[in-house]
Write a structure and sequence with these properties.
The chain has 8 helices and 3 strands. By secondary structure, the protein is mainly α. It has one domain: de novo design (two linked rop proteins), CATH 1.20.1440. Belongs to the connexin family. Beta-type (group I) subfamily.
Protein backbone atom coordinates (compact mmCIF):
# COMPACT_ATOMS: atom_id res chain seq x y z
CA UNK A 1 0.00 0.00 0.00
CA UNK A 2 1.42 3.38 -0.98
CA UNK A 3 2.09 6.20 1.50
CA UNK A 4 -0.85 8.15 0.03
CA UNK A 5 -3.21 5.31 0.89
CA UNK A 6 -1.80 5.09 4.39
CA UNK A 7 -2.19 8.84 4.86
CA UNK A 8 -5.78 8.76 3.59
CA UNK A 9 -6.52 5.80 5.84
CA UNK A 10 -5.11 7.47 8.95
CA UNK A 11 -6.88 10.76 8.19
CA UNK A 12 -10.17 8.93 7.72
CA UNK A 13 -9.80 7.10 11.03
CA UNK A 14 -8.81 10.25 12.93
CA UNK A 15 -11.31 12.60 11.25
CA UNK A 16 -14.57 10.87 10.26
CA UNK A 17 -16.98 12.69 7.91
CA UNK A 18 -19.48 13.61 10.64
CA UNK A 19 -19.21 15.97 13.60
CA UNK A 20 -20.47 13.34 16.03
CA UNK A 21 -18.09 10.82 14.50
CA UNK A 22 -15.18 13.15 15.22
CA UNK A 23 -16.36 13.57 18.79
CA UNK A 24 -16.69 9.78 19.08
CA UNK A 25 -13.10 9.37 17.88
CA UNK A 26 -11.91 11.94 20.43
CA UNK A 27 -13.88 10.30 23.24
CA UNK A 28 -12.88 6.78 22.22
CA UNK A 29 -9.22 7.54 21.65
CA UNK A 30 -8.47 9.88 24.51
CA UNK A 31 -10.90 9.29 27.37
CA UNK A 32 -11.79 5.62 27.06
CA UNK A 33 -8.37 4.28 26.11
CA UNK A 34 -6.61 6.51 28.65
CA UNK A 35 -9.01 5.39 31.38
CA UNK A 36 -8.40 1.73 30.59
CA UNK A 37 -4.67 1.97 29.99
CA UNK A 38 -3.76 4.07 33.03
CA UNK A 39 -6.43 3.54 35.68
CA UNK A 40 -7.16 -0.03 34.61
CA UNK A 41 -3.57 -1.04 35.27
CA UNK A 42 -3.59 0.77 38.61
CA UNK A 43 -6.76 -1.00 39.78
CA UNK A 44 -6.22 -4.48 38.32
CA UNK A 45 -2.47 -4.66 37.81
CA UNK A 46 -1.58 -6.56 41.02
CA UNK A 47 -4.88 -8.31 41.62
CA UNK A 48 -3.51 -11.85 41.22
CA UNK A 49 -0.68 -11.18 43.69
CA UNK A 50 -3.03 -9.90 46.40
CA UNK A 51 -5.77 -12.49 45.87
CA UNK A 52 -5.63 -14.80 48.90
CA UNK A 53 -7.69 -17.74 50.07
CA UNK A 54 -7.99 -19.89 53.18
CA UNK A 55 -5.62 -21.71 53.44
CA UNK A 56 -3.20 -19.17 51.99
CA UNK A 57 -1.27 -21.50 49.71
CA UNK A 58 0.00 -20.72 46.24
CA UNK A 59 -1.79 -23.58 44.52
CA UNK A 60 -5.10 -22.71 46.17
CA UNK A 61 -4.75 -19.01 45.44
CA UNK A 62 -3.85 -19.63 41.80
CA UNK A 63 -6.63 -22.19 41.29
CA UNK A 64 -9.28 -19.93 42.84
CA UNK A 65 -8.06 -16.82 41.03
CA UNK A 66 -8.36 -18.62 37.68
CA UNK A 67 -11.87 -19.62 38.71
CA UNK A 68 -12.67 -16.08 39.82
CA UNK A 69 -11.20 -14.51 36.65
CA UNK A 70 -11.64 -16.75 33.59
CA UNK A 71 -10.40 -13.69 31.67
CA UNK A 72 -8.87 -10.61 33.24
CA UNK A 73 -10.91 -7.40 32.83
CA UNK A 74 -8.00 -5.56 31.20
CA UNK A 75 -7.71 -8.21 28.48
CA UNK A 76 -11.47 -8.28 27.93
CA UNK A 77 -11.78 -4.51 27.60
CA UNK A 78 -8.69 -4.27 25.39
CA UNK A 79 -10.19 -6.90 23.06
CA UNK A 80 -13.47 -4.99 23.12
CA UNK A 81 -11.79 -1.75 22.06
CA UNK A 82 -9.86 -3.43 19.25
CA UNK A 83 -12.86 -5.37 17.91
CA UNK A 84 -15.13 -2.32 18.01
CA UNK A 85 -12.58 -0.38 15.93
CA UNK A 86 -12.53 -3.02 13.16
CA UNK A 87 -15.70 -1.97 11.20
CA UNK A 88 -14.64 1.68 11.01
CA UNK A 89 -11.06 0.76 10.13
CA UNK A 90 -12.29 -1.55 7.37
CA UNK A 91 -14.47 1.20 5.90
CA UNK A 92 -11.69 3.80 5.96
CA UNK A 93 -9.28 1.28 4.42
CA UNK A 94 -11.81 0.73 1.63
CA UNK A 95 -12.21 4.50 1.21
CA UNK A 96 -8.44 4.97 1.05
CA UNK A 97 -8.03 2.23 -1.58
CA UNK A 98 -10.85 3.74 -3.68
CA UNK A 99 -9.52 7.31 -3.16
CA UNK A 100 -12.85 8.38 -1.68
CA UNK A 101 -12.74 11.83 -0.14
CA UNK A 102 -14.35 12.38 3.24
CA UNK A 103 -16.82 14.93 1.84
CA UNK A 104 -18.00 12.42 -0.78
CA UNK A 105 -19.03 9.88 1.84
CA UNK A 106 -22.10 11.90 2.87
CA UNK A 107 -22.99 12.93 -0.68
CA UNK A 108 -23.18 9.53 -2.38
CA UNK A 109 -25.76 7.01 -1.26
CA UNK A 110 -23.57 3.94 -1.58
CA UNK A 111 -20.72 5.40 0.46
CA UNK A 112 -22.99 6.83 3.15
CA UNK A 113 -24.89 3.52 3.32
CA UNK A 114 -21.64 1.59 3.69
CA UNK A 115 -20.50 3.99 6.40
CA UNK A 116 -23.83 3.68 8.26
CA UNK A 117 -23.45 -0.11 8.08
CA UNK A 118 -20.01 0.13 9.72
CA UNK A 119 -21.45 2.31 12.49
CA UNK A 120 -24.32 -0.14 12.95
CA UNK A 121 -21.80 -2.96 13.31
CA UNK A 122 -20.05 -0.96 16.03
CA UNK A 123 -23.34 -0.72 17.90
CA UNK A 124 -23.86 -4.48 17.66
CA UNK A 125 -20.33 -5.23 18.84
CA UNK A 126 -20.66 -2.83 21.77
CA UNK A 127 -23.99 -4.43 22.74
CA UNK A 128 -22.48 -7.92 22.61
CA UNK A 129 -19.51 -6.77 24.70
CA UNK A 130 -21.92 -5.17 27.19
CA UNK A 131 -23.78 -8.46 27.57
CA UNK A 132 -20.56 -10.47 27.90
CA UNK A 133 -19.28 -8.08 30.55
CA UNK A 134 -22.44 -8.66 32.57
CA UNK A 135 -22.01 -12.43 32.28
CA UNK A 136 -18.33 -12.35 33.23
CA UNK A 137 -18.11 -9.61 35.84
CA UNK A 138 -21.62 -8.57 36.88
CA UNK A 139 -22.21 -5.10 38.29
CA UNK A 140 -20.49 -5.51 41.65
CA UNK A 141 -17.27 -7.03 42.97
CA UNK A 142 -17.82 -8.63 46.35
CA UNK A 143 -15.16 -8.60 49.05
CA UNK A 144 -15.46 -12.38 49.56
CA UNK A 145 -15.39 -14.99 46.81
CA UNK A 146 -16.47 -18.53 47.62
CA UNK A 147 -14.22 -20.86 45.64
CA UNK A 148 -14.95 -24.50 44.81
CA UNK A 149 -11.65 -26.35 45.32
CA UNK A 150 -13.06 -29.86 45.05
CA UNK A 151 -10.96 -30.46 41.92
CA UNK A 152 -7.78 -30.10 44.04
CA UNK A 153 -8.85 -33.16 46.09
CA UNK A 154 -8.80 -31.22 49.31
CA UNK A 155 -10.66 -32.21 52.44
CA UNK A 156 -12.83 -29.16 51.96
CA UNK A 157 -14.81 -28.24 48.84
CA UNK A 158 -15.53 -24.55 49.41
CA UNK A 159 -13.04 -21.99 50.62
CA UNK A 160 -13.23 -18.26 51.25
CA UNK A 161 -11.07 -15.90 49.20
CA UNK A 162 -10.43 -12.22 49.77
CA UNK A 163 -10.78 -9.97 46.73
CA UNK A 164 -8.44 -6.97 46.99
CA UNK A 165 -9.76 -3.44 46.41
CA UNK A 166 -13.25 -4.70 45.63
CA UNK A 167 -14.87 -1.26 45.98
CA UNK A 168 -12.49 0.35 43.47
CA UNK A 169 -13.15 -2.48 41.04
CA UNK A 170 -16.91 -1.97 41.40
CA UNK A 171 -16.53 1.72 40.53
CA UNK A 172 -14.34 0.80 37.55
CA UNK A 173 -16.93 -1.71 36.32
CA UNK A 174 -19.68 0.90 36.43
CA UNK A 175 -17.42 3.35 34.57
CA UNK A 176 -16.76 0.84 31.78
CA UNK A 177 -20.48 0.12 31.47
CA UNK A 178 -21.07 3.86 31.24
CA UNK A 179 -18.43 4.27 28.53
CA UNK A 180 -20.07 1.51 26.49
CA UNK A 181 -23.47 3.19 26.79
CA UNK A 182 -22.01 6.57 25.79
CA UNK A 183 -20.33 5.01 22.77
CA UNK A 184 -23.58 3.36 21.63
CA UNK A 185 -25.47 6.65 22.06
CA UNK A 186 -22.82 8.46 19.98
CA UNK A 187 -23.08 5.82 17.25
CA UNK A 188 -26.87 6.16 17.13
CA UNK A 189 -26.53 9.94 17.06
CA UNK A 190 -24.02 9.67 14.20
CA UNK A 191 -26.47 7.62 12.14
CA UNK A 192 -29.12 10.24 12.88
CA UNK A 193 -26.75 13.02 11.79
CA UNK A 194 -25.99 11.25 8.51
CA UNK A 195 -29.71 10.72 7.87
CA UNK A 196 -30.42 14.40 8.53
CA UNK A 197 -27.66 15.45 6.14
CA UNK A 198 -28.93 13.11 3.46
CA UNK A 199 -32.46 14.51 3.59
CA UNK A 200 -31.25 18.12 3.81
CA UNK A 201 -31.97 19.06 7.43
CA UNK A 202 -28.30 19.67 8.05
CA UNK A 203 -25.73 21.15 5.71
CA UNK A 204 -22.98 18.78 4.66
CA UNK A 205 -19.54 19.98 5.57
Amino acid sequence: MSPNYMRSFSEGCLKPPTVIGQFHTLFFGSVRMFFLGVLGFAVYGNEALHFSCDPDKREVNLFCYNQFRPITPQVFWALQLVIVLVPGAFFHLYAACKSIKQEDILQKSFYSGFYIFSVFLRIILEAVAFWLQIQLFGFKVNAIYMCDVGALEKKFNITRCMVPEHFEKTIFLIAMYTFTVITVVLCVAEIFEISCRRIGFLKTQ
